[in-house]
Amino acid sequence: MAPMRLEIITAERVVYSDDVDLLVAPGMEGELGILPHHAPLMTMIAPGEITVRKEGEEDSYLAISGGFLEVMANHVTILADAAERSDEIDEARVREALRRAEERINMRASDMDLQRAVAALQRSQARLRVVQRRRARPSPPPGQS
Amino acid sequence: MPNIRVIRRRIRSVQNTAKVTRAMEMIAASKLRRSQQRLLASRPYSDTIMEVMGHLAAQTGDLGDDAHPLLQRREVNRVEVIHVTPDRGLCGGLNANLNRFVGRFVLDQSVPVSVIPVGRKGRDFMVRSNRDVRAVFVDQGDRPNLLDVLPIARLAMDDYESGYVDEVYVAYGRFISTVVQRPTIQKLLPVEPAEMEPGELSGYIYEPGSAEVLASLLPRFVEMQVYHAVLESIGSEQSARMVAMRNATDSANEMIQGLTLLMNKVRQESITTELLDIVGGAAALEG
Quick check: B200 and A27 CB within 8 A? Predict the structure, then answer.
């Protein structure tokens, strides 16, 4: 099948830009799989994990902390608040952030703090999942730009 | 005949000026490197969100009154311009160009225009020329973050939603290269629909729903565009200052050369005159 174009862009940089065959993203109402020639779509995405599949290559994973996803004319654009490829994540720091977030939630701080802590927890969990995928499969896949 | 001491003092003064402009040039150059990086990195996001908004606006034309308040088009009775300029001068013609550009834009409108100057130079100009200044934002610094510009975007959106203004523009100096900064004005609200092939206008699927997505995406769009305009403006300011200060340093050095030449000539002449006097005096005594 003809591939589709995927671009993941944050305010700081272009994280990913390549032709892909399948994309799985965390939608607001559950996982969202997108194949080439998907109908036009505009959705918010939750903090989580993005899986990218290319024919003949191993899957690659990215951690994303919320944003928007647009599908338009076989072109997928993700405007992310923040996004990292699996090989850019520092596992030790993620674990530390995760621990801090859990601590803050356990302390039962005010509503505002709680919301922020939960958001931080979700982001850290997503990063951790992505980084652990990489450890299960040591060589990072080529084709990432 | 100019006095040697006067010329020497003049040279020293020009030398001091050259030192100052040289230092300013180097400061601007190092700030430029940083701001250029940030600005070029933020361009893809800004361009892409613009594109996405264009697609979106092209397809929500038939929503009518249900459209998000930031997408509603009205008859234009008042427009608002966010006028982004540097806080400081000594950056060549940049401020003058920006102010002239926006001043012209204001005069070209057939309806009243409210201006929101961001930066001292724009504020001074707009106040001096008696424009309707809605609010003033100064002291953004050289490295503002998104939070610093949120109030500007908030005000523009509130004005648009409340119907106080019917169009919002943002004007800034777009950084083209170190030597070129182009005054640019961009329409923020209402969002301009992109031109699309009829076949592409099949309508979006929204998830969770169009209201939720738009309510979250539209403010984000305005905020990012204003932020990006500020980044562009800072890049333009630093590059314009660097070039202006380099020219100033070069001119000062040229002036020093000219003055040194003049000083030497004057000195030589005075020595010659003195010698002639002595020789003349000696000849008179002998005779």
Answer: no
